[in-house]
Specification:
- There is one protein chain.
- The protein is mostly beta strands.
- It has one domain: Jelly Rolls (Sandwich), CATH 2.60.120.10.
- Helices cover 0% and strands 54% of the residues.
- Strands 1-20-17-22-15-13-14 form a seven-stranded mixed sheet, with no helix packed on it.
- Strand 7 and strand 8 form a beta hairpin.
- The chain is globular.
């Protein structure tokens, strides 16, 4: 088993006034040659958007874009005709495929906090698609809750993307342990601590820390406080 620790303090921090962001991987004006991607995981942005501000219409293509609102609301509008507001406990997937325009605006009078994640697809120039779904928090208490799955998988509750990737959420009580078993040989796992404190392979991770794990079949996470986790399993080779 190989691990690489990503401390929260080592992320790229930017402040545009209307947007405060922490980048786990090189993005926009922030570049770190040692933090380009983790396998097919290209972007994990931790964003705070000011009231009534946001990203005006802009294009994407050939990228799987997953958004998880943590606090507040986010209004999504795209060139496919979708115009939807999402809230915490909802997951949004946009397969940009052959090309799409969209905007993301905080429609409320309070700050919106969200994670936006980009994954390289294994099918290019597909017809763009959008899907949004509620994932109830009681279904991830001390267990893995699948929120994203590959388009090749028919079972499970996750939203599909065009990649052999899986995303899970988990809310652990203090002094609990949970084991994760690799879904596909050769994949890596990126464990991101939304909040709390955990231990993995003798590493202590606190809020917004992360760890990349490769060459494994399974590993166990132990919580030293009440913790919320995001786990992303992705292929490691482009």
């Amino acid at each position: 088993m190989q691990t690489i620790l990503h401390k929260a303090s080592q992320r790229g921090f930017v402040n545009h006034g209307w947007l405060k962001a922490a980048h786990s991987f090189s993005f926009g004006s922030w570049y770190n040659a040692e933090k380009i991607r983790f396998g097919m995981l290209r972007v994990l942005n931790d964003d705070e958007i000011a009231p009534h501000q946001g990203f005006s219409e802009h294009p994407h293509d050939n990228m799987e874009i997953i958004t998880l609102v943590q606090e507040g609301a986010l209004k999504h509008k795209d060139s496919m005709g979708n115009e939807i507001i999402m809230h915490p406990n909802e997951v949004q997937v946009m397969s940009a495929g052959s090309g799409i325009l969209h905007s993301e605006i905080n429609p409320s009078a309070s700050i919106t906090k969200l994670f936006q994640i980009w994954v390289f697809p294994n099918k290019k120039n597909v017809t763009p698609r959008y899907e949004q779904k509620i994932f109830l928090p009681e279904n991830r208490k001390n267990k893995w809750q699948e929120i994203i799955k590959p388009y090749t998988q028919n079972d499970g509750d996750g939203i599909f993307i065009y990649q052999e990737a899986w995303f899970y959420l988990c809310d652990l009580e203090e002094n609990q342990s949970i084991t994760y078993t690799q879904k596909k040989a050769g994949n890596g796992a990126f464990v991101f601590v939304i909040n709390g404190e955990i231990e993995i392979q003798s590493n202590t991770l606190q809020t917004r820390d992360a760890i990349g794990i490769t060459d494994f079949s399974e590993f166990t996470i132990c919580s030293t406080s009440k913790s919320s986790l995001l786990l992303i399993e992705v292929p490691m080779n482009l």
